[in-house]
Amino acid sequence: MKFSTALRQGTRRRLERLQTADIVIGIPCFNNDSTLSHVVKTVENGLTLHYPDKRCVVFVADGGSVDDSREEGEDIERSPWVERIISIYRGVPGKGTAVRAIFEAANLLQAKATLLFDSDLRSITPEWVKSMIDAIINDGVDFIAPYYTRYKYDGTITNNIVYNLTRTLYGYQVRQPIGGDFAFSLPLIKKYLPKEDWETDVAKFGIDIWLTTTAMVHKVKIAQANLGVKIHDVKDPAESLGPMFRQVVGTLLLLMEEYEDVWLKVKGSKKVPIVGPDLHAEPQPFEINVQKLVDDFKIGYGNWKELWQKIINKESWKVIEKLTVTETDKFLIETEHWARILYDLAAAFHHWKGNRQLLISLMTPLYFARVASFVNRTKNMSNTEAEKVVEIQAEVFETNKKYLVDRWNSDIKL
Q1: Read out DSSP for 358-393?
Q2: Which pLDDT tens digit goes with each residue over 348-374?
Q3: Phi-psi region at 185: left, alpha or beta (left = phi > 0; alpha = psi -120 to 50)
Q4: 3-state secondary structure 239-278
Q5: Mapping DSSP to helix (H, G, I), strand (E, B) and coil, where does residue 313 land?
Q6: Span 166-179, mean pLDDT?
Q7: DSSP 8-state secondary structure symbol assigned to residue 162
Q8: How far is it, in rounded angstroms, from Cα 151 to Cα 123?
Q9: What is the pTM of this model?
């Protein structure tokens, strides 16, 4: 069943009664009763403190939470300057449909600035609100991505795949392309809404990379906002990031197909300005199960080695084979090999005639291997030193872009 709108009728009527707003802050939510009230309270404080003369709406788009999320959101004392709407969205379950509802609300209200904040944030402050809104309203920025200080093993999909690929493909050095907390101008909102992607995997974890890529492809004015430390519900990649990996990477690869006429022409990358005050803070470390990452890689090798060997270049394949007999603490993939492996996989996806979800599934153990390698490379490093490693990785990906283009354009037989 296709949905022409993510807004329920009662919610739409309420928005129509409001008529207009200057600022909409959207919070996608699903079973976040332990954190939602903090996020709502903080953004409303930020709006009251910094924008008392603006018409402001806080819109919680809920996925049908079975905990007390909606009740927690409603029970917070209301500010007389901020309208709060908490509504269950309609459509494919997932964050993307929540974002669609928020964008539809912002468009109905013709809001000058629309912000998205994840509902599991613990470190959000009223200053986050100001940094992002000011750049949209006062500086003419269309799209703002977050710029966090994160623990070196938080954001492994970003650090090892998404940052490297989006920077290389589209030429923008946006450090957190799937950071979750974004801001948008009204003209950009109007570019997103008519697109056909809302009922695909974009409706799930693919939404963040889709939002960022779409902004880059439309060449709108982009910035990053200093948000300091991001503290949220951390997920160990060895335990719980498989489904997220498949949806994020699947969306990223489908976008490569859709926009190949754009990225094939891009050379190099440019810095993206950072707005807001520099916030000095040290993120909290957490444990990561390297042994499980290695074990899952080896299980994947047992299941997929024949297909992997057809896809991966010969030199990198030798590295993969060697890793299957390497001790965990010596487990290492050099960045040049990792870049070429990812490019081999992207080209295979492009030429794949079968089930593409199967191809993405067989990539997952290779991602686990790379994360284990990154942990071993950086285990004695500070966060700052590990960040330099991430930047060097991205440069290696850029240097090897011709390899990607050649593989993409070649006649690969699978």
Answers
A1: HHHHHHHHHHHHHHHHHHHHHTTS-HHHHHHHHHHH
A2: 999 988 888 888 888 999 999 999 999
A3: beta
A4: HHCHHHHHHHHHHHHHHHHHCHHHHCCCCCCEECCEECCC
A5: coil
A6: 97
A7: I
A8: 13
A9: 0.93
Residue with tokens 């004392």, as numbered in its chain? 77
What value, to the nearest 5°, has the Cα angle with vertex 89 and ends 21 and 34?
90
Which residue is listed with tokens 């199967």? 358
Residue pair 134/47 in contact (Cβ under 8 Å)? The answer is no
First to last CA, the chain: 34
Nearest to 164 by CA among 206, 209, 204, 207: 209
Q: What is 9-275's CATH topology? A: Spore Coat Polysaccharide Biosynthesis Protein SpsA; Chain A (3.90.550)
Structure tokens at 145: 């991505």
- The Cα 147–Cα 163 span in angstroms is 12
Model confidence over 236-293: pLDDT tens digits?
555 555 677 788 889 999 999 999 999 999 999 999 999 988 877 778 888 889 999 9
> Looking at the predicted structure, is the pLDDT value of residue 406 above 90?
yes
In this predicted structure, what is the pLDDT of residue 234? 55
Please state the domain extents for the chain.
Answer: 9-275, 290-409
Q: What is the mean pLDDT of residues 284-312?
A: 92
Q: Do 62 and 30 touch, CB atoms closer than 8 A?
A: yes
From residue 342, alpha-carbon distances to 220, 233, 346 in Å are: 28, 28, 6
- Residue 101's closest CA among 206, 156, 29? 29
**133 near 47, Cβ under 8 Å?**
no
Instruction: Note the Cα 375 to chain centre separation in Å.
Output: 21
Q: Give the model's pLDDT for residue 332.
A: 94
Are the CB atoms for 211 and 170 separated by under 8 Å?
Answer: no
Instruction: Provide the pLDDT for residue 127.
Output: 92
Q: How far apart (Å, rounded) are the C-alpha atoms in residues 103 and 91? A: 14
Q: Is residue 81 packed enough to be buried (19+ CB in 10 Å), middle (13-18) or exposed (0-12)?
A: middle
Beta bridge partners of 228: 148
